[in-house]
Automatic annotation (TrEMBL):
The record marks Y142, K193 as: Important for catalysis. GO terms for cellular component: cytosol. Residues 5-361 form the Isopropylmalate dehydrogenase-like domain. Its EC number is 1.1.1.85. Belongs to the isocitrate and isopropylmalate dehydrogenases family. LeuB type 1 subfamily. Substrate binds at R97, R107, R135, D226. InterPro entries: IsoCit/isopropylmalate_DH_CS, IsoPropMal-DH-like_dom, Isopropylmalate_DH. It catalyses: (2R,3S)-3-isopropylmalate + NAD(+) = 4-methyl-2-oxopentanoate + CO2 + NADH. NAD(+) binds at residues 77-90, 289-301. One of its GO terms (molecular function) is magnesium ion binding. This is 3-isopropylmalate dehydrogenase. Signal peptide: none annotated. NCBIfam families: leuB.
Length: 369
């Protein structure tokens, strides 16, 4: 593999639309900053199913294992709703996460000042918000066995999923959270349901163990996940890093998205163990989905995907300064009042299109030179 290899998987719905804007940004860094990423592109999700009858081919999976980083747009859509569960678009994404062993999903929720009035909460509750949810991504109820839909032998059926966590699975994601906290506000809040689930009891004990034995200098608190959801809405700025399981992390990060103004703003990094070159195995993905309700209309906000590229520059390509440059460019565009429809209030008119938002980011990057 050449240096700085990036596999782009645009996927479905708005995935290819937002990825087209990311391509402009990648080209800009090549032309203006001499940063040559070796970019290749492949199919995932419904697009892969349409072409190959599977949401992820073995060849694409193998490629993802080889590159320095993967950037995924979004998968899924109504067209695929009736497909057999085993070939649904989402299975392609879950296979990537599982086989690459990307156990730590880093989901920052930062409220840019220019967007503080677009949150569904009051400005003073969200202005300046800067928290990170570390979601366990390769275990828990998403992957636990037994699972399936079985007959109950009385004419009915039983849907089964299993919440399951091992010591090692909890400890390694806890370490990711503590490491991150050390570079930020030095605070971790762990969320589970230890009051009703044995896996929650183990989660709490093991996170505490990692704290006491390896990170005693980081402040650790525990919260039941339902109370955590409430606190996230009541006073989100009390948090620095939240670490939680796969399902709770999925829900809490969508909730956190609305604190920042729009799901269209939230990037994420899914990280695994270090590879031979010392960089973590990694896939970058916006938190949002394929947004079928606006797909194909040029309405999608490309910022979440562009900011996911910024995370790739920082975590996979050792280009932290360039990542900051890109994040600042997005911030400037928002401060200048460029808005896709998701960032507008009722009654406001003439939203920027996906492409106009991408072009504005390029102009802000130019201005940064
Ligand atoms: P969604 O995130 O696609 O959309 C939720 C709402 O947010 C919609 O109203 C949508 O228009 C809006 N939205 C999302 N991203 C936006 C953006 N960038 N700009 C402007 N508005 C945006 O969630 P959903 O509707 O529950 O799911 C749709 C499909 O996406 C489903 O098939 C689901 O499984 C899939 N999905 C995929 C991913 C992923 O690929 N990582 C994540 C979540 C959902
Ligand atoms: C996400 C999505 C995925 C998840 C789906 C599409 C598999 O909601 O990335 O948040 O549930 O993890
Ligand atoms: Mn989700």
């Amino acid at each position: 593999m050449p240096d700085n290899s990036l596999l782009i998987l645009p996927g479905d719905g708005i995935g290819p639309e937002v990825m087209a804007e990311v391509r402009k940004v990648i080209d800009w860094f090549g032309d203006k900053r001499g940063i040559a990423l070796d970019v290749s592109e492949d199919l995932v999700g419904g697009a892969a199913y349409d072409a190959h009858g599977t949401p992820l081919t073995d060849a694409t999976m193998a490629k993802a294992q080889e590159v320095d980083a993967v950037l995924l747009g979004a998968v899924g859509g109504p067209k695929y709703d009736e497909l057999d569960f085993s070939v649904k678009p989402e299975r392609g994404l879950l296979r990537l996460r599982k086989e690459m062993d990307l156990y730590a999903n880093i989901r920052p929720a930062q409220c840019f000042d220019a967007l503080a009035d677009f949150s569904s909460l009051k400005r003073e509750i969200v202005a300046g918000l800067d928290i990170v949810i570390v979601r366990e991504l390769t275990s828990g109820i998403y992957f636990g066995e037994p699972r399936g839909i079985i007959d109950d032998n009385e004419g009915g059926r039983i849907g089964v999923n299993t919440q399951r966590y091992t010591t090692n699975e909890i400890r390694r994601v806890a370490r990711s959270a503590f490491e991150l906290a050390k570079r930020r506000g030095n605070k971790v809040c762990s969320m589970e349901k230890a009051n009703v689930m044995e896996s929650g009891i183990l989660w709490r004990e093991e996170v505490q163990w990692v704290h006491d034995n390896e990170y005693p200098e980081v402040e650790l608190s525990h919260m039941y996940a339902d109370a955590g959801a409430m606190q996230l809405c009541r006073n989100p700025k009390q948090f620095d890093v939240i670490v939680t399981d796969n399902l709770f992390g999925d829900l809490l990060s969508d909730a956190a998205a609305m604190l920042t103004g729009s799901l269209g703003m939230l990037p994420s990094a899914s990280l695994g163990a270090p590879m031979a070159n010392g960089r973590p195995k990694a896939m970058y993905e916006p938190v949002h989905g394929s947004a079928p309700d606006i797909a194909g209309q040029g309405k999608a906000n490309p910022c979440a995907c562009i900011l996911s590229l910024a995370m790739a520059l920082r975590y996979s390509f050792d280009l932290g300064d360039e990542a900051t440059r890109l994040e600042k460019a997005v911030e400037k565009v928002l401060a200048d009042g460029v808005r896709t429809a998701d960032l507008m209030q009722a009654g406001e008119r003439d939203p920027a299109t996906t492409a106009q938002m991408g072009d504005a980011v390029i102009a802000a990057l130019d201005a940064s030179l």
